[in-house]
Structure formats: structure tokens, C-alpha cells
Amino acid sequence: MDAYGDPASEVLLSAGGGELMCELLPYLDFERLTNDPATWFMGYSDNTNFGFLLPTLCDVASIYAPCAPSFGMRPWHASLHDAFALLGLGAGDSVRVHSYDGWELQSLKSAEHPLVPYNAVEKPSVQSYSAARFDAAACPSVDAAACDGTPGGNDVVQMQGRLLGGCLDILINLCGTRFDEVARFNKRYASDGVIWFLEACDLGPLQVRRALWQLAQAGWFDIAAGFMVGRPYRYDECQMGMTQNRAVLDSLYELGIQQPIIINADIGHLPPMMPLICGSYARVAAHKGRISVTMELV
């Protein structure tokens, strides 16, 4: 609270993710945070506890992007340049970010080499769908390899609305608590719609599916204009024949959600990640494995 309210503070950059940031929330004065001059907060993962509540409780934008240690690598990855550039934005500004040419499944970091660049050697695996769908004929067995995706995945997708989201592990923990003001946010921006950006850390496919069901039943997706889902940290995991991709696509389909969906986006725990301004108004386009996001501070 002291750091956020200090006039000398230009940005609060998280030192890292974590596990129990939720336990800090009862000690925060959100009314004061609403009235103080806005300060950029940047972080991801467990930082969703603060970065998500700033727009939903205080109507203040935050940045979902790498934490401080990532900026120690040499040379910087393009995603770090993109993230750092956002810190200079103010009301009325706009910025465009895009997906990257490769991503990291296995990190080369170690105790002796904590600042090595991303090992971004994996090919992009972005898939885009104009709406959730499932073709049983294309997935006839419970074999993981046979069920890795759905037909296509190269639809031209365009969506616009307020960007809102973060780490799915944290969002389900916030859902239904006294800090849950998503219904009020949805009412405030009903004419804009919401583009949900989501990514998972500790959740396997079945846990992801349960989490999406929970948020949908709580009304969080009532004005959804679309979904951008990042590569999950447990990327290759399969549970009871269900992969991470199928968990998202099948769940949204069976929930009756017909908005556009992008999966395996550059968001979250498998870098690089596109920096996203939570609470901004965004226009998102995807086709043939590429994503662009234009964000406006309006």
C-alpha cells in the first residue's frame, strides 16, 4: 500500500510469482487504491491476485507480463522489449503486440546460470476457432495422440472487448469471495464485451475443465466476446484420455459458448509471453498460427 501510494513510484514490478498472495488481500484498502493516482503493476501467475482485482475492483489497468528476474537476461527477448515499452503508456494511448516465432518447453536456467535467454526452439502451436466445436469422428478414441486437437484450428478469428484474466489457478480461488466483483465489471462494460485471457500453471486437463465450468456457472463469461488461452505449464499432460487442448475446447463447447477461441497463445508460464494490459480495450486477430493484439487505454 505504501509503495503504490508513493508519488515517487512509477511502477510496481513483481519480484516473482508465488503461492499465497491471496493471504495479503484482506490487508489491502481497495477504496484507497481506487482513489490514489494510478500506478502500473506488472507481474503474472500468483500476481493475478492483485493484477486482476485492480481492474475489477478499482477500474485501474494492470500489466500481465514477466516478473523482474526475466529482465536480467542478456540479450532481451523481443517479448521483454514489448513488456517494458508498456510502462510508458498513459490514458488514451494504444499499443500493438503480437505472438512470437518460437517458445520454450525446456528451460536452460540453472542456479549457476539464472539469466540465460529463453530456449525458444519450439514451433508455434497456436490454433484459432471461430467458435467452440467438437467432431467426434475426428477423435474416435481416448488415445492422447488421437485427441490432441480438433479439425482445423486455422480459422480467421477477430474479436474485440475488454481484456480480463490471468492465471486460472488463482481466478478460481477468487471466484465467489468478497473480492469477486466480476458481475459489476460485466455490467459496467456490457456494451464492450470481455475477451478473457487465461493460462494455467498447476492445473491438469481435468482441473482446467472443472475451473472453466466453475467460472461459467458463476456468470463470469456472461458477456464474453472471445477467449485467448495460453500454453499450460503442464503442456503435454493427458488425464483419462483428455489433453489440455481438448479440456478447453470441449468444456467451452459443452457450456454452449459460441465465441471465438484461441489456444496455445503466447501467454503464461511457458515463455515468451505477450504482455497484456488487463482492463484495456483490445482488438485481437488470429490466423494461421499468428496473433496480434491492439490495446487501448480508454
TrEMBL record:
<dbReference type="InterPro" id="IPR040921">
    <property type="entry name" value="Peptidase_S66C"/>
</dbReference>
<keyword id="KW-0378">Hydrolase</keyword>
<dbReference type="Pfam" id="PF02016">
    <property type="entry name" value="Peptidase_S66"/>
</dbReference>
<dbReference type="InterPro" id="IPR029062">
    <property type="entry name" value="Class_I_gatase-like"/>
</dbReference>
<feature type="domain" description="LD-carboxypeptidase N-terminal">
    <location>
        <begin position="1"/>
        <end position="64"/>
    </location>
</feature>
<protein>
    <submittedName>
        <fullName>LD-carboxypeptidase</fullName>
    </submittedName>
</protein>
<dbReference type="InterPro" id="IPR027478">
    <property type="entry name" value="LdcA_N"/>
</dbReference>
<feature type="domain" description="LD-carboxypeptidase C-terminal">
    <location>
        <begin position="160"/>
        <end position="283"/>
    </location>
</feature>
<dbReference type="InterPro" id="IPR027461">
    <property type="entry name" value="Carboxypeptidase_A_C_sf"/>
</dbReference>
<dbReference type="GO" id="GO:0004180">
    <property type="term" value="F:carboxypeptidase activity"/>
</dbReference>
<dbReference type="InterPro" id="IPR003507">
    <property type="entry name" value="S66_fam"/>
</dbReference>
<dbReference type="Pfam" id="PF17676">
    <property type="entry name" value="Peptidase_S66C"/>
</dbReference>
<comment type="similarity">
    <text>Belongs to the peptidase S66 family.</text>
</comment>
<dbReference type="InterPro" id="IPR040449">
    <property type="entry name" value="Peptidase_S66_N"/>
</dbReference>
<keyword id="KW-0121">Carboxypeptidase</keyword>
<keyword id="KW-0645">Protease</keyword>
